[in-house]
Amino acid sequence: MEQNIPDIKRVFIQNHKKIDFTFTQNKYDFIVEEIPSRIFNGSGNYLILKIKKEWLSTWDLLSQQF
To answer: Does pTM surpass 0.85?
Structure first.
């Protein structure tokens, strides 16, 4: 079954001068754990996922077809 996933357009809200920095991509320096703002009761219109990704940007993850 093929899914049609739309392209995600990046939106940059800030309109400031370029920030000069050096970014070295690696899998050890960036870890995110999101804490939900409410307790889920086991029913409702939501999906809870635990995702571990390495060498894949969030944009690339969102464009994957599972």
So the answer is: no
